[in-house]
Amino acid sequence: MKSHFEHVLDMKWGDLDRSIFSDPQTFELELERIFARCWLLLGHESMLPKPNDFFTTYMGRDPVIVTRKADGTIGCFLNMCRHRGNRVCRADAGNARAFSCPFHGWTFGNDGRLSNVPGYKEIYLEKLDLEAHGLVPVARIDSYKGLLFATFDANAPSLLEFLGDMAWYLDMMLDRREGGIEFLPGTHKWLVHTNWKFPVDNFIGDSYHGPVSHKSAWVSGFEGMPRRKSGYGYEGFQVNPGGGHGFGVRWAENRDQVFEMALPEFLDYEKERLEESISRLGDLRGLHFSPMHASIFPNVSLLWQGGAIRVWHPKGPKLTEAWGWCFVDKAAPEAYKREKALHMLQRHGTSGTWEADDVDNWVQCHSASEGYVARRYPQNLEMGLGDEIDDPHAIHPDIRGRLGKFQSEINQRAFYQRWAEMMDDPSVPAVPDMSRRDACKVSS
Amino acid sequence: MSASPQLNLDLWFRVQAFLVREARLKDDHQLTEWLALFSDDLRYWMPVITNRIGRDLGKEISAFGEVAHFDDDKTSLTNRVKRLQTGMAWAETPPSRTRHLLGNVEIMAVEPDGVLQVRSNYLMYRSHLEYDHELFSGYRMDHLRPHGDAWLICRRDIILDQSVVTQKNLGIFF
Fold first, then answer.
1. Burial letters for B122-155: b for 16+ Cβ neighbours within 10 Å, e otherwise?
2. pTM above the 0.80 mark?
3. Residues A301-329: pLDDT tens digits?
4. How far is B131 from chain A (nearest CA, A)?
5. Which of A31, A255, A367, A391 has its CA 20 to 30 A from that of B84?
6. What CATH topology corresponds to A40-141?
7. What's the confidence (pLDDT) of residue A3?
8. Highest CATH level, class, for A165-424
């Protein structure tokens, strides 16, 4: 396809072409150039505690099985029998050494190898190449401090390169306490009739919508974090570490302000953990930055203090399947974990008093993209354009990346620019050529 | 009273009438009156369903304490109602039109303190704005504590049959 996506975002005015949300061809190209090339979040290692544990998820529109193999390593394979394409695993999670296709009985070990074919001798006369018909593995799988990612692109950069400085900032989530984090059991899954980019856009940098969208929840007992008083120095920042990732933080001058921002039910825990976090992460990441919201390119979002992490699975230009988990410090007391789960599910996720209001916003913004005339009018992303912080190091010498004011659309603009770059650049092979048999053999 | 509460027609009829009224209050958006039917020590819980096979079939319903769809006490359920009544709960402004249908009502047990364990199936149709609509199905296990000449609901466990919620939110009550 001819390269043209560089023009969807006009950086002079901050105008964004609405058709990228509704155009079916754009969606199909995203599956190739975004989802078949990027590192995508599978889940967390804590979801596979024992050998032979597995769960199923999606990478883009492709269904995959994630397995803890007998040797303890983690594998990830297309959930697709190599015979007719039937799903070999119909469970969301469980424990299994092998997956047997319900259609004709081809059986695959949880390392992907085709281990049994009914009638291999009598019907196939032992000619079927078993090694070439294993489950299709992802090109690479890796973990960053427990967060599991995989990519279908053998030429993709390493996960650490892909995350770039976002990994360093993700330590505020993953490494602020000894032992890191875990996902609490229980996954929210629900369908949203919107394009996957709307929620990513919302989480990556929209600190503007809160006082309007979420006022009803805030005043009804579902207060969020952080609470703010006046006299805090900086209001906060939108931080752009590059790579299409981004997040927003509140700023705290000192320990007292960290505690003032905590909800009463979490205050004791904030006091318990803060010194450890500062000593592990230093004062920028451990003290001054109170991270709020983030998106990891392309389709992961999180709410730091809300304990919510999401994958936005693309199902079509107008359909997204949201998956959400609650994450907590592994070292936290059980009572805190329970409180955090309640905090999360009463605000975010399927019945969330905050998220419900977000979802309808995204649904209706998407609907606007479908009108022939409405589509000719761009979205406005000019907030903070030309108004970046000139010298982030004057604020703190450790800051990495670009910095916008707390109310700035710097992160949304960077997300769409990264998206356009990847959409326009087909030079890197997206996926190995699956027509070649040697490309899909399971490596030992 | 006949030997078995399950076969006590008068009791069954009164329970059925109580639950039908409770459903009507939701459909008519009389949520303050609806809240008054719940005890202060309420547990209002809707677990998450996952697709399981073989020996894991018993794990289809998430355990209490894990991340659930709803996990409310009287305070948080009251706050959910308060939110809807602010006029600024945009996802329910205008509110969904719901129709709660109830059937297969069975009194499963009577506890020594008189609390009834009542199981029922529900179908709930929801229409919102122009085109958003969904049929929710499942069953509930209610614990009804005698209160005056009726009951207070002190525990409501709600099973929603869907593993992936096919609606944009669960911003309505079950």
1. bebbbebeeeeebebebbbbbbbbeeeeebbbbb
2. yes
3. 999 989 999 999 999 999 999 999 999 99
4. 11
5. A367
6. Rieske Iron-sulfur Protein (2.102.10)
7. 57
8. alpha beta
